[in-house]
Amino acid sequence: MILANKDKYSISAMCKVLNISRSLVYYKRKNKRQDVKLESEIIRIFKESKNNYGTRKIKVELSKLGYQVSRRRIGIIMKLHGLVSNYTVKQYKVHKAKCNEEKIENVVNREFDRDDILDVVVSDLTYVNVAGKWNYVCLILDLFNREIIGYAAGKHKDATLVYKAICKIPYDLSKINIFHTDRGNEFKNKLIDDVISTFGIQRSLSKKGCPYDNAVAEATYKIFKTEFAYNRRFESFEELESELFDYVNWYNNIRIHGSLDYQTPVQYRLQYSL
Predict the structure, then answer these.
(1) Exposure winner among 27, 41, 128, 135, fewest CB in 10 A?
(2) Which of 92-101, 205-214, 247-256 has the lowest average pLDDT?
(3) Mean per-residue pLDDT for 10-21?
(4) What's the whole-number mean pLDDT along residues 190-201?
């Protein structure tokens, strides 16, 4: 009876009404070709996500194609094909460098949800393995839509790297209201201070030893290190720069974000105008 009415009512709901365990009800799938197509779509979505998407985001992408599939089923198919997200891989952490003692307040005050483009931009640095040596990447994000608006790779963790990232920002820098970072010396120095003052940007620094004050940047770098840097060794600095360009383009234009209602940063921004 349950199988005869499964097209009208939910199997789970009928089992609940009849006080029958859902696990006792089995039925043969009608179309194996559809199952093969579904598996192919899951594999494609996973590969195009650069092996980063888990069941939640794959389900969102499948729904755009008209598939109504549970995360459990997606997980079974992923396991069957050996699809393991980068987020399940053990990650290595390095110690933090010393910070500066400048008496600059935390203007942002953990108010990370911003209604205006370029109201607050945040930044941080991380390390990558290039031919067995540490190189560094600086990213600059707009809190409005979590878009990477500036980025740069360098062989040294210094102000020049931050300056290169700022120079990549494709907007009039005077439109930036607040520039917020942690207290790393690469962010608070004469070179960066000159840029900040020239364009009339307000400075904001996290409190000493408090990563929560720059939580969005920290979270983004967690994503970046998981999806781009961990368990990877770039053979040359040129390869790093090329791959970084490709990743930033994918992150801004293709990767969906849960905090943006599963839109890409660019899709979210295009709903508004500068």
Answers:
(1) 27
(2) 92-101
(3) 82
(4) 92
How is residue 226 written in tokens? 């998981």
Measured distance CA(52)–CA(190) in Å, rounded: 38
Round to whole Å and give the CA distance between 229 and 240.
10
Give the contacts of 37 (CB within 8 A, at least 6 positions apart). none
Name the residue with tokens 């009608």.
Answer: 30
CA atoms within 13 A on the CB side of 262: 10
Instruction: Give the model's confidence band at 81: pLDDT under 50 very low, under 70 low, under 90 confident, else very high.
Output: confident
Per the DSSP assignment, residues forming a β-bridge with 123 are: 140
Indicate the SS3 state at residue 96.
Answer: coil
CB-side neighbour CA atoms (13 Å) of 43: 11
SS3 per residue for 180-245: EECCECCCCCHHHHHHHHHCCCEEEECCCCCHHHHHHHHHHHHHHHHHHHCCCEECCHHHHHHHHH
103 band by pLDDT with thresholds 50, 70 and 90? low
8 Å CB contact between 141 and 217: yes
The average pLDDT across 233-239 equals: 94
> CA–CA distance from 178 to each of 114, 121, 175 (Å)?
11, 6, 9
* Per-residue model confidence (pLDDT) at position 95: 44
Helix (H, G, I), strand (E, B) or coil at 55: helix
Q: How far is CA 31 from the centre of its chain?
A: 36
Start-to-end C-alpha separation, the chain: 59
Residue 7, amino acid: D
Q: How far apart, in Å, are the Cα atoms of 34 and each of 37, 67, 74?
A: 5, 10, 14
